[in-house]
Amino acid sequence: MPDSPFIIDVTQSNFTEVVLEGSRERPVLVDFWADWCQPCRILMPVLAKIVEDFAGRVILAKVNSDQQQALAAQFGIRSLPTVMVFRHGKPVDQFMGVQPESAIRTLLERHLPRESDNLRSAALEKLRAGDAEGALAGLQAAFESDPDNQALKIDIARALVALGRADEADETLKTLPMDLHQDEAVRRLEAQVRFARVAARGDELGQLEAAAESGDNPEAMHRVAAAKILAEDYETALPLLLRLMQKHRKYGDDAGHKGLLAAFELLGAQHPLVKEYRRKMVSLLY
């Protein structure tokens, strides 16, 4: 394979510089290979051609897994070749085995810097500062300039939730490609949208809390629990959802059960409340 400034042999000593730090500027393909691996040798020229065509927009970091066993173990490499995509200091994608050139290009293009990224960054800064209207306008402008950038749809949905326009956020998320619905950030946002669409607000919340406390009004229970979830008051919301599931299984197509699952998505599997209420939920199911 000819020498190239875009193809670098990586060891434990230069991994941080080449891969972790380098991926903050552009995607880094990390190819875990070995001399004895025939599929690795088939894949190598394909990867080399791709990075040469991208002319510096992507770097290929080659890791000889036999010589760099600690690196291979660190990233859980079980079969060769394994190719991981690093971006912003962490792995964001991967594939194993020999893949068609077109499939590898499609995977890479998801992580390449785009012209709309600057507009997106400015809009997200507005969202963090509490200017959801300004953020939405900026994100929509970015999407008009780059309609293939699916990440912008996720950000638009997030801004719509902040503006209380949960139904529009839900419709926006429905237009995402199916594979993105498996992304953890998207699943969490979908759970948030689920609660935002039913949550009680303002004076209405105060009026419904008493009705929810009685346990006889499933709609009140559902809407109050959703409001508490959005306020991150999980200690109040989870018992209410569990009670809704226990007393009103037919309400909202088992809204209590679905609400608990959505809350678990927001909190994460290792959260103590998730472990506690998952046990309680399972006991009601069985």
Describe the protein.
By secondary structure, the protein is an alpha/beta fold. 58% of the residues lie in helices and 10% in strands. Strand 2 (28-33), helix 2 and strand 3 (59-64) form a beta-alpha-beta unit. The longest helix is centred in the first third of the chain and has 17 residues, at 38-54. The model has no long low-confidence stretch (mean pLDDT 93). It comes from Thioalkalivibrio denitrificans. This is Thioredoxin. Belongs to the thioredoxin family. Residues 1-113 form the Thioredoxin domain.
Provide keyphrases for this structure.
single chain, 286 residues, alpha/beta, Glutaredoxin, Serine Threonine Protein Phosphatase 5, Tetratricopeptide repeat, 3 domains, 5-stranded mixed sheet, 14 helices, 58% helix
Q: TL;DR?
A:
It contains 14 helices and 5 strands. It has helices at 15-21, 38-54, 69-74, 101-109, 117-128, 132-145, 150-162, 166-174, 184-196, 202-214, 218-230, 234-247, 255-267, 272-285; strands at residues 7-9, 28-33, 59-64, 82-87, 90-96. It starts with 6 loop residues before the first strand and ends with a helix.
Number of E strands: 5
Low-confidence stretches: none
- By secondary-structure content and strand pairing, the structural class works out as alpha/beta
Helix content: 55-70%
Instruction: Give the biggest beta sheet.
Output: 5 strands, mixed
Q: Please write the string of helix (H) and strand (E) elements.
A: EHEHEHEEHHHHHHHHHHH
Mean pLDDT: 93
Quote the CATH topology of the largest domain.
Glutaredoxin
* CATH class category label of the largest domain: Alpha Beta
In percent, how much strand structure appears in the residues? 5-15%
What overall geometry do the principal axes of the alpha carbons give?
elongated
The CATH homologous superfamily of the largest domain corresponds to Glutaredoxin
Distance between the termini: 60 Å
CATH architecture of the largest domain: 3-Layer(aba) Sandwich
Strand order of the largest sheet: 1-3-2-4-5
Our count of helices gives: 14
Counted up, domains total 3
